[in-house]
Amino acid sequence: MLLIHCPYCEEERPELEFAGAGEAHIERPKNMADISDEDFEKFFFIRENQKGLVYERWRHIHGCGRFFNAVRHSVSDKFIKTYKAGEKKPKLTKAEIEAVLPPAKNTPANEPVYTDGAKQKG
Amino acid sequence: MPNPARIHPLADRLSAGNGVILSPVESRERISLRADPTTAKALGTAIGLNLPTKPTGVTTKGNKSAFWIGPDEWLLIGPDNGSMAKALEKVGRQVYSATDISHRNTAITVSGAKAVEALNSGCPRDLSLDAFPVKSCSRTVLGKAEIILWRTGNQEFHVECWRSFSDYVWKFLVDATRSA
Question: Taking CB atoms and an 8 Å limit, are B55 and A17 in contact across chains?
């Protein structure tokens, strides 16, 4: 089970207490009524869905109930850090990023990881 | 109109064995208090109890207790006479919401040498004394139900759950006791 650090409870808590809430840092347009349908679609539906480092919203729903943001690697599932809602994206150090990289680089999440990094055929 | 006495959802239940004792907690007054942390002092003064401001904090005075649930949320538990709700009504000029949840919640006392093992069979939270010392509390999960866990002693816990989930929580703990 993942242990997730809640920035409000100030401790690591089990994954079952949390719920994911999609991509973080999406700004709601101030002129909602004026924007075009294409722009609205972009704001409302289109998400990065990146493989690699992702900034996400999480909610400690069975704990303090608060939303917060997290940086996570979407392949290895490892969290780099979590921070309170409203705070800016944290600056990540090289060491922090390397610590959460999956075993073999460029390995899709749903395929077996080969230690030599080469895809075996057969 | 007659006023029939409210039946406790866990009336007449008791379970003991394998190092765990389960017993229902009698009716209490419970209030879910939501307020900005800056008003905590005024609200605490009204009910005669300092509201905890640190995560997992619990403050107790007599038979009244206040639990830190979130940065702007507290649970208050006191004797079943409505005195806390009345006291909070007198707090003027503060923005807060106090919801009476006396009958939404009920509670079970879990105690004994294997209490931690029984709870940990459904609660993934670290219940070691270092991580969750006596007089701390937190909202967490037990099996499929949400609970508020309050450690009242080294081997004694107060498990607060919804009335409608209480039968599930009770049976879950009885099952857990058998394998603890």
Answer: no
pLDDT in tens, chain A (122 residues): 899 999 999 999 999 999 999 999 999 999 999 999 999 999 999 998 888 899 999 999 999 999 999 999 988 899 999 999 999 999 999 899 888 888 765 656 555 444 444 454 44
Domains and CATH numbers, chain A: 3-99 (3.30.2270.10)
Probe site for chain B from A64, A66, A67, A84 (most B CB atoms < 10 A): A64
What is the tens place of the pLDDT at every residue in B71-125?
A: 999 999 999 999 999 999 988 788 999 999 999 999 999 999 999 999 999 999 9
* C-alpha span between B135 and B114 (Å, rounded): 19
Which residues of chain A are within 8 Å of residue B73 when distances are taken between CB atoms?
Answer: 64-65
Domains and CATH numbers, chain B: 15-26+104-179 (3.30.1360.120), 29-100 (3.30.70.1520)
In this prediction the pTM is: 0.87
Of B126, B113, B98, nearest to B154 by C-alpha is B113
Find the length of chain A: 122
Complex ipTM more than 0.85, yes or no: yes
B140 interaction partners in chain A (CB closer than 8 Å): 13-14, 17, 62-63
Taking an 8 Å cut-off on Cβ atoms, the answer to whether B70 and A13 are in contact is no
